[in-house]
Design a protein that fits this description.
Radius of gyration: 20 Å
Low-confidence stretches: none
Distance between the termini: 60 Å
CATH topology of the largest domain: Ubiquitin-like (UB roll)
Number of helices: 9
Structural class: alpha+beta
Bound molecules: iron/sulfur cluster, FE2/S2 (inorganic) cluster
Strand content: 15-25%
CATH architecture of the largest domain: Roll
Mean pLDDT: 95
CATH class of the largest domain: Alpha Beta
């Protein structure tokens, strides 16, 4: 069992664990964008780079296996400057911020004090991509996409469908939906995995936005753990409640030991308006 030091703390890691695994296990935070629990590691965003004693370059914590005797510094000057650089680069194609951070990515911008360049002073336009126009459940606003590819891997590896991909190259790279942008023909099951993993909200649920204010969605009055009523699997779901109405349904953390391991099907995730139906007996 390899032992290592992370930020001065002595840790034991299991064989095959990465620096990120060991740090997370000890409650040491390393920022991540392309990494997501259980998804294949691609190491493309470079925000998780850390200093490792004896190594001439920073190493990606998400993709570097622990070795016995490693000495890691997660907040070295070089690592922090690299994170700011990565975030600055990503904001070159990202819309202007609008007050309180709305998502995982914007929280990092605040944490690392990175302010996007004014939109009118940028060389490149906002990113675009397939939008799923008219879709009643899931749509895309690819101006906030940072090309982390979590959605592509979640669709391919968790749902095993492969509806999404990265199309084009260089500055034109964007997330595309197969079958010329038609999710139905591309085999989409509307499972919502892509919504769940997206760190910026570029892929989002339509219904809550049609019915509730953004602030309500971000801060539900209650989140109630329940069991999906549709079939016999017993998937656990979290009901986000406001004004005694279900605003949206999410699944428990993927790393929790639940029957559905963080996933739901289309019914569990999107079939939640029946409790409020006018024909429902309430007394
Ligand atoms: S809803 Fe599910 S199947 Fe459809 S694109 Fe997203 S992850 Fe893939
Ligand atoms: S849509 Fe979201 S999950 Fe997919 S690549 Fe863009 S930012 Fe990442
Ligand atoms: S989180 Fe490690 S490279 Fe993206």
């Amino acid at each position: 069992m390899p032992s290592l030091k992370v930020d001065g703390r002595s840790l034991s890691a299991s064989e095959g664990q990465t620096i990120l695994d060991a740090a997370r296990g000890a409650g040491i935070e390393i920022p991540t964008l392309c990494w997501y629990p259980t998804l294949p590691i691609v190491g493309n965003c470079r925000i998780c780079l850390v200093s490792v004693e004896g190594q001439p370059k920073l190493l990606p914590a998400c993709a570097t296996k622990v070795a016995d005797g490693m000495v890691v510094t997660t907040q070295s000057h070089a690592a922090v400057e690299n994170r700011k650089g990565v975030l600055r680069l990503l904001t070159e194609r990202y819309p202007a911020l609008n007050g309180t951070p709305r998502n995982e990515f914007e929280r990092y911008l605040v944490q690392y004090d990175v302010v996007p360049t004014a939109v009118e002073n940028r060389d490149l336009p906002l990113r675009s991509g397939d939008e799923r126009p008219g879709d009643p459940m899931i749509r895309h606003d690819m101006s906030t996409c940072i090309l982390c590819t979590r959605c592509v891997r979640a669709c391919e590896d968790i749902q095993v469908v492969g509806v999404l991909d990265v199309g084009y190259r260089g500055e034109h790279a964007e997330i595309i939906v197969g079958a010329d942008g038609d999710p139905d023909k591309a085999g989409c099951t509307w499972c919502g995995e892509c919504v769940r993993v997206c760190p910026t909200g570029a892929i989002f649920e339509v219904m809550p936005r049609q019915r509730f204010a953004p602030e309500q969605i971000r801060h539900p009055e209650r989140v109630v753990r329940s069991v999906c009523p549709y079939c016999g699997v017993g998937c656990q779901v979290d009901l986000h409640v406001a004004d005694n109405k279900v605003m949206r349904v999410t699944s428990p953390d993927i790393e929790l030991n639940t029957p559905n391991q963080g996933s739901t099907c289309v019914k569990g995730r999107f079939g939640y308006d029946f409790p409020q139906h006018r024909d429902r007996l309430t007394r």
